[in-house]
Every structure is written in structure tokens, then in C-alpha cells.
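Help wanted!
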Amino acid sequence: MLQFQLSVDQPKATLYLEGDMDIDATEIIEDEICPVLQKYNFVEINFIKVRFVDSTGIGLLINLVQHSQENGINIAISNVNAEVNEVFSLLQIPNILGKDVFV
Amino acid sequence: MSNRSIISKGNNVKEAIENGLELLDTTKANVDIEIVEQEKKGILGIGFKPAVVKLIDRRTLEKQHPHSLSEDDLIKSIFSDSDNLIGSEQKSQISPYMHSDQKNDKKFDEFLLEGDLQGKVWIKGGLIQCKDTPDRYPTITPGKGMVLIRNGEIVTKNTIIMERDYLKVDLVDESKETKWDIRIDNANMKAILVVQPGYKKEKKLVDQRPEHHIKLEVSETIIPQKSLTMSVVLDKLSELGIVHGINTSEITRACGSTEAGEYIIASGDMSQPGTNGWLEHKVELDSTIAEPKERSDGSIDYRETKHIPSVEVGKVIAIIHLPVPGKAGMTITGVKLDPSPVHALKIVQGKGISLTNDGRQIVSTESGRPNVEQRGILVKVSIMQKLYHQQDVDLSSGNIHFHGDVEVTGGVNETMKVVAEGDALIKGNVNMATIIAGASIFVNKNVIGSELTAGKNNMLIADMSQLLGEMVDHTKQLVAAIHQLHRSPAFKIADLAKTGLGSLIKLLLEKKFGSYSTLVKQFVDKVQKGKGALDDEWIQFADLLHKSFLIYHPDGLKGLDDLTDLEKTIEQFFQISSTDPEPNSSITIPYALNSQIYCSGDVSVIGQGCYNTKIRSLGALQVKGFLRGGEYLAGKGAVIEEVGSEKGGVSTQITVPADQSIKINRVMEDTVIQIGKIKHQFKEESMYVNARLNDEGRLQLY
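Answered by r_m:
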């Protein structure tokens, strides 16, 4: 189950994710996280405690980032661990979201 | 064992002794001196005689006296020791050795005995021997392939020799080791032993008769070395891992050979191909076209040119033969070579046929024309019903669409259309109309301003082969990428069970396989366009691709197994599309004007010819009349009576692929022919042109 914590330092917010970014996280991401992020100009999504992903979860992440970017929010993804990063690379996520999103 | 002695001369005794000691390189203490003759002083040099002394060296010099060896020993020592020393005879008498050989070389020795040896040099048994006189010294010239050493110095030019000289001839024996190697071809089907047998070149001074001057000559004897042995070769073979098909008799031959050569010492067995399943036709299938009959008034009757086969109900149309597997082969390294797999025929049952219980016979359940379409191992068999339309096709009759053959007794008029799944036979004129047939089209009269298409599905399918080929490659990569993801420890696959592969494929197609969706879209569009002409299986296949890769429908791919299945299906369709169909379509017309004709098989123009017409034939184009203006493309070559127009003006172009030829009996100026990428325009009228590309890819007209 995915859990999150938001730490705000206006105008920047950091979203700490913990758990698996998978199909079970659909509602949390779409209904809770996404609306909250739209209030800030800069958002860093910290992946340090995300250990597993699945294709649905990655789809949700792409939607989240792209939707926020359309709203003019600067999004950065940080601290992706090596295993998850491998999955991202295989799917060429950095190419989809833009390489500068990953910090 | 004998002592060395020399005779030395000088102006006086003292000088003679000094000369002698110098030559012997010794001192008085080592020699016994015998005064042979005191000098005589003459008057004004006349009557002068030098002093002659004999110096006998007390040191034993066995080495310098090979005479004491037997001849056999001597020859051996020459061969085994190239540094052999040849001593000159220094006694005033002939050496005992020379006498000892009388039996073998009587003449020579007799000559030596009887002849005048004074001042001469000769070679006997490889030894240089001479007899000098006070007023004449013999001379020798060293020859090629030797080093002549006289008294420790190398001599390269003419030189005089004296009995007391030490002569040494170095003859360098040449030898070459046997060289060999085993080459294996890329397919591991052949091992070739390449041998260059070694040899020894033995050199020997050639015996020569006594002469005042001789040129030393060397004789060479080449002795081949058969040093390669069977066991060495076998060891090398096993080291190379060659275990199968070894030919020992060839190895024996190679080992015993004295000349360089290549020997196939092991050969693998090729696998024997089997035969795929095949269909034995039990009834006549092909429509036969007879030569048009000439009427008594000289005009031609095109009506009686065709015989169409038909069957009754319950007739065995064909027997299905099972595939026969091939035989496995083996490489020389013992790897088994499986024969290429054989395939059973895949029978698609069309209308009006049924299979017997054992699945081996195809039987008609309706009467009509038996139709067999074969593409690789895929065979579609059906009975074509025939529609007889006993009048013109015009506005009153409406267009004709029929799942079978169509025969129109009249003509086809403006804007009308005839679509037949089988053959279309039009007995009248086709005027500004469209005729489409799955198989063949026959028109007995003129084709004017019309479009004729025969075997359209075949052309469509052939068109799709490139797209499908690319899809096969991309699908393989896609499957590989998914497998790779599955192995990633951080990747969960639980969601795939709920949502199907859709979400994953969407991710992959988003970027990594971006071009894949473009391919699929092109393919699906093509199938959509050709919907009327293509079989249902193509439509279903395109639909599945659409669901799986374009809209990620949950009904598309449910799991990895579905994707693997789809991969196989794509490959199958690719194979189908890249296999040439059995030619089952053709177009036969007497005359065409301003028309367009497409055919997946042969096109025959059996009457007057074509004006300003465009023909695209995947088969051969045969024209008994003329082609004036227009474009003519023939996939399997063209044979034409006459091309172009005498007045010029209209351009006519004939095109065939690079491996085909164009034959024209009479070609007018300005006609363009194209073979492969090479174009040629005729500048003047030519007769009996046979154009093709030669081996260098150049156009040849003759």
C-alpha cells in the first residue's frame, strides 16, 4: 500500500512516497496526491522508500507528472533506487517525462 | 696414415725451402728436407733451372687425407657434413684411391692412367685432383651453389691450383620440412588436409675429366620427405574435434604424396530435406485456353477459346498427402544436422467441399468449378458456382456481385461493375466498366476505357509482406523487452492479471517501441481498404492487432501467452504474404484501349493489341499484337510482337524486374524499355530484340 507525506517549504513542496507504486495505489494517486500537488509551483517527488513498481503504477506516475506539467508545475523525481531505476530505464521513462525531471 | 710432403722450388735451395715452409705454415723443425735438385745458373737467364726441394711434414695430417676412407664412407661424410674437406693430391703420382676404383669407371681411370695429366685438373668421386707441372698450372672456376676455399681463402674467380693447395668446397644441402595444415570449412562439413611435402636437395660435385681448366659444377638430387604420418593427422583431427566422416584412405594418400596437394580427409553428411505435405489433384482444375480459331473468311473467332472444368457432387477433388520428414545429417565435428522441418498442408474449406473422415480426401458437396488456391502450405479449396448472365450488364440489370464464377453473354456497359470471387468471362465488349475477379478474367471482345483486376487479394497480400516483416522483428523485440522487465526485481506483474497486458504495452509503445504503433496502424488501414478482396482471417487478424496495440482493449492481450501466440500468428501471416501464390489468376483479352489492367498472374493479349493502356502483371506478359502507348509492367518477363508507333508521339514503356527479359519482334523508335533499374530508349526501329541484364548488370540487346 502506498503512503505519502508532504513537506511544504513555499513555493516548493516535497512529496515523500513510501510503499509500492502499483495498481493498488490508483485511488491514492488520482484522488489524493494529484489534487494536492496542484497547489505548488515546485514539487519534488521523493522515491527513496518506493521499492516496487508495476506497469499500472508507472502509467499513473506518467499521468501525474504530465498533468501537473500541463498546469505549469515544475516536477522533479528524486532518490529513485537502483532496482526501480532499472525498470524506468527499460521503459525509457526518462525519455517520456524528460531527462531533467529526474534529479 | 701418411705424411704430407710438398715439392717446393726457388731461385736457390734456401728460397725453395722457405717457400715450402711458408706453404706448409710450419718451421724447419717440423719437416724433413730432401734436396731434389740444385739450382742451375744460366747465362742471361737462359738455361736457368730453379732449386727443387722436397719437404716432408712430420706432423700427422690424417684429416687432410680423405683418400684413406672408402668411397661409401666418403659419400656419407659429404652428405652428413657439408663442411667436407677435399684435399688436393700433392704427390707427383696418382693417389692409390684413384686406382682402387678402376672396375666401376674403367674408361675414366684408363684415361687417367694413359692420358697426359700434366697440368690438368679433374674431379673424381667428388674430389678435385690435379697435377701441376713447373710450367703449367691447372685452373678452376667455382660454380654456382658452392663456396670454394683455397688455402683458407674464399675464391670466387678463376684460380690456378697446385697439388699442394688445400681446396675445400662447401656445398650447402637445402632441405625443407613437410608443411601441412587442416582446414575446416565454415559449415563444419569438410576437413581439407593441405600438404606440401618437404624435400632434401643433395648436392655433389660433378665428376669431370682432366682438363687444363674446368668449371666446377654441382649436381642436385631432390629427395622428397614423406614425414607426415597417419597417426599425426589423426591426432590433429581429434584435437580439432573432428570425429565424423573421416576418410583414412585419403589420409594415407596425402601422407604418401610427394607433391603439394589438398585432400578431403573428412566430410560431413548433409541432411536430406523431406517433403512438405502436398495436394494431388484428382480433377482438372485449370481452364484451358485453345488457340482462337480462324474462320473461313479470315476473321478470328474468339468465342471458342476456353474450356472450364467442372465437377459433379461427391467427386474426389484432391488427395492430401502427408509430409515426409527428411533425414538428419552430421557435421564432421559430430553435430547432428536436423533436416528443415516439414509442414502438413493447412486446408481451408471453402464453399461446396467436405473432407473425408480420415482427413485425407477432399470431396465436392456441390457441383461447379473446383477451385484451389494455394499459398505455401495454406490451401483453400472450394467449388465455384457459376452465374450465367444472358444479356448485357447495364443499368437495367444492375452491377453483378457473385461468390463464384460469372459468365456474361453480352457486354458490360458504361459505369457498370462485375465482381466475381472466381472467374469472370465476358463474351461481349467491356466499355468504361470495372471487372474484378478473384481468379481470372476472360474478355472475348474489346476492352475500352475500363479497369480490369484479377487476383486482387494476392496483390494486396503481397503488398503487405514488407509491413508484416517489420512487425515480426518488432514483435520479437517487444516480447524480449517484456521478459527483461519480468526479471527486474522491482517490477511487479500482479496488475497484469487484472488489466491484461494493455497497460504494459501502452508504456512500451509510448516511447521505446514508438514506431510499432505506426506499423500496426498502416497494416490495419491496408486491410480495411482491401476488406472486400481479403479473406475473413485477415480481417480478424487486423482486428486483434487493432485491439492489442492501438486501443489497448482489455480483450486484446490478456497475458504473456497471448502475446507469444500473437507473435507466432504475425510470423505466419508474414510467411503467407511473402510466399508467391500458386498462379491461379490470369487475364486474357484480345484488345484494350485507354484501360487499366492489374493481374497477380499472367496477362495475355491474344488479338490486335493495346493502345494507351496500363498493364501491371505480376506474372508474364504475352502480346501477340502491338502495344502503342502506355506503360506495361511484367513481373515475369514480356514477349511482345510489336511495340511503339511508326509516327512516334506516344511513348510506350515496358518494364520488367532485373532477372527477367523483354523479347520484342519489332520495336519502333522512342520506345523505352526498363530492366531492373536500367532504362533504354530505342533511337531507331529494331527487329528481334531480346533484352536482358548480363552478369555484370549491364543491359544486353541482341
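OP: Thanks! One thing I noticed: Chain B touches chain A at residues 481, 484-485, 488-496, 498-499, 503-504, 506-508, 510-512 (CB under 8 Å).
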